[in-house]
Structure of methionine--tRNA ligase:
Amino acid sequence: MATSLKLNIPTNAPRGSPAFTQALKASFALHAFQADQVQFCKSSEESVSLEAPKDNIKIVDINAIVRFLARIGGAPWKAGDRAPDDAWIEWEEVVLRPRIREIETVLDLAEKLLAKSWIAKSGGVTPAQIILFSTLYDTIATAQPSILDKHPRLKSWYYNTLESDWAIEGIQKAASMTTVSSLDGNSTKAVKKAPVTADKLPKKPVVIGTEADRKLNAGIEMKTYAPDQKILPEPGKKNILITSALPYVNNVPHLGNIIGSVLSADVYSRYCKARNYNCLYICGTDEYGTATETKAIEEGVTPRQLCDKYNALHSDVYKWFNIGFDHFGRTTTKEQTEIAQDIFLKLHKHGYLTEDSITQLYCEKHEGFLADRYVEGTCPKCQYNDARGDQCDKCGSLLDPMELISPRCKLDDATPVVRPTKHIYLKLDELQEQEEKWFKQSVTEGNWSRNGRIITESWLKEGLQKRAITRDLFWGTPVPLEGYEKKVLYVWFDACIGYVSITATYTKDWEKWWKNPDNVKLYQFMGKDNVPFHSVIFPSSQLGTKDNWTMVHHISTTEYLQYEGGKFSKSRNVGVFGNNAQETGIPPDVWRFYLLSSRPETGDSQFIWRDFILKNNSELLARLGNFVNRLVKFAAAKYEGLVPDYTDAAKDPAFDAFKADVNKLLKEYVDELEAVHIRAGTDLLMHVAQRGNQFLQDNKLDNATFAAEPAKTAAVVGLGLNLIYLLSALCYPYMPATGESIARQLNAPVRAIPDTWEMDLLPGHRIGKAEYLFSMIDPKKEAEWQGKYGGDKKVEEALKEEEKKKKAEKKKQKKKTAMKAKAGIVETVKDAAVAALPDSGAAASSSKD
């Protein structure tokens, strides 16, 4: 058997010529028999040839080539169904040889031969079927389709075959490989006021997917920006500023992290852009704080090295998920220091900061005050053994280190003592009246999500108290006050300022976004545990500066996404993390759609592998993918890729209910997305696709209708293709690659989401080549993925054992290494912090003045 086969297709094969018919036969055979080892090549010769020089093979007879490709590709018919020798002789010698030129004679013989069961009822595609269809396709395309009326069996078989995958793909391949020049010189004349059927094809070169072939309504495109163009707000326009909670740099994001902030924000950002709003989406890594210092010590690196590592890791994960940040930055910048210190000093100037001496846990072993996360112990509320000094991961309660039962130093497991120290506090109590007034207005006008409203109301009802905004760390924004050189700003005072500083690294005109409340609406996305910092602490800080800040208009929150009934755990290998999703081979759009359709908006939701597979197979593939593929291929086969003239027929009142249904669903989609109801949009998107499927079914889009009712078929195809174009826009926020693929198949630009559905693909517009949007996922993968991401039993057992012996093991195994790490890294941390930030002495001096 040949190992390297080359199929030469002539480059100048006009329709109706023997060379074009040969090219069709070869193209059909390759697709029908999946002879993947054959390489397509263009040739200047007038006929098709198949060559394998190393194996001394050269076949020049096209029918012999078709039969050869069937053998090497594994034609799917049974040996018992093959044609008898005499039938083959009759088939080839009488019908297919060029000595019979009369069309009627060819059709008569073909009708008789088609009656033979071995041709019409074989267990798959046969060489005979391909040879007959190729001959008829070119014959009928250059004659009147009515010529088949006298041959009903042949007519039915021909149009059924015309709809098969191998026929559609073969026609497109032959058209793209050959010039397909006209025989009569009428290269551009197109038929008007009638559907473009096989008998009325335009006599021009077939070119798939070029702008020159576009016939579209004006003003439908989504606004785009040049790579070096900065997005800035414009007076009188809808200007939307979007942020998602800054991911911390001490972990790999799991699916719950991704849906909770960056993915949800990305959907709304893409929606705004698809509505042609002026929209900027900002995010980045949160890099200061205790967690960075402790993680750096654990990994034996400097905080800067740790931040570089995780910033790159997060960037790669979000890039794979196709998160379309306009700018993804980080908080360890000079802009962060300048803006955070400016806010701090203005709060100080207006009397909203106060100094207070407090008692704080102090570790005598390494001689240092312990920031919240350097303290571990038993939660006083739920008795969880591994609560942190700032929060209990089990019950979610915010804690003070002094509240912990049996506290211990995270670094060396020593029991800390209580000593007095000084910190700076933000007087939230004195800012409460301003905060409440702002909140009541914002929560109403911005229609906050339920969690955001309830959590904020709870804080305000309890009464705001002064809150410490400094910490005993080295890795952070220096406190610009004399006497505080060894302290930094608390990360949760500092972190929200990161949105501003990251914008400042994007554009020097950052104040046009952040100090422009009359022209900019701020939308912020986060998990529910981050709400107080965005709805109370940051807004209060903004109000206290007395600057004209852009403040949050809408807060969108999520509950928790669980994994198969439990929690995500990196240490236990439980759940899918950002870098695992790519390993499955499932495209990002499928992950995006499933997560968004399961978005935990009003309560916790579950990631379930069975649901994931079902969502892909029964919704994305069966509803959306098949609808698009069926219609694009039908248009390619029946109209050679042209949108038929549907103008008059589409005005039939019989189509009014369909148009009304689509516009009703479109309005609901826009209303839900305007209200930032992200999950609801996925349901409406699928409803639109299902309405399209129902439309094709109600109007019986098939070969019989195409032949019997050409005007109606043209209307159905025209309306259907325009619905697909609308779907491309509705898909774009949720599945951007899918939306772009649909637009590409329609040879149209990515379009804006309209208020009303219009017919924007005009008659005569040439569509592109069909692409498969989704693939079936084998249900057997459920067990495989459950096993791979369901946790390591040995790890589970080891962790349980470690839990029982935790204190003893830490004393024996971690004491020396932790002390060495601390001693070796503290100086590096100090140097890195000073080197990365502006001169703290200058800042202190300015504060003193």
Remarks:
- The first strand starts at residue 5 and ends at 10.
- The radius of gyration is 34 Å.
- Confidence is low (pLDDT under 50) at residues 76-100, 180-207, 832-849.
